[in-house]
Amino acid sequence: MQLDDATDLARRVRGLYHQLETAHEGSPWGVKDDMLGLVNDVGTVARLVMASEGRWAPEGDVPTLLQGKLAECLWWILVLADRLDVDIAEAYGTTLGGIEEHLQGSVARLPPA
After folding, report:
1. What CATH number was assigned to the domain covering residues 3-108?
2. Where are the domains of the chain?
3. pLDDT digit string (tens) for 67-102?
């Protein structure tokens, strides 16, 4: 799946959640609520990483749980970027391209092994 397609899917899924939030809570979640959703899921990822190293025992299959929770974290990132008018595909390419260039320079200056 391309990032633009993933963003479109994230937007559609978020719209469905907004409908449920409005029906159950009287209004859709705001951006701050979405951020708290991400933070909650990141905490779960942390526990699942601990579980993958034998430091915590969750209920369920750790690889499957980790796959799902990482996907949900990506979904939250795409939702937040969309709601905050950030072109995440462009930002990712620009940011990581700059980091890669910087790291290549740093690696090139390393003493020979």
Report:
1. 1.10.287.1080
2. 3-108
3. 999 999 999 999 999 999 999 999 999 999 999 999
**How far is it, in rounded angstroms, from Cα 71 to Cα 77?**
10
pLDDT tens digits for 49-74?
999 999 988 889 999 999 999 999 99
pTM of the model: 0.89
The two structure tokens encoding residue 24: 């159950």
Exposure b/e, 61-94, CB count within 10 A at least 16 = b: ebeebbeebbebbebbbbbbbbeeeeebeeeeee
DSSP assignment string, 46-61: HHHHHHHTTS---SS-
Separation in Å, CA 73 to CA 23, 40, 43, 78, 112: 24, 9, 10, 9, 39
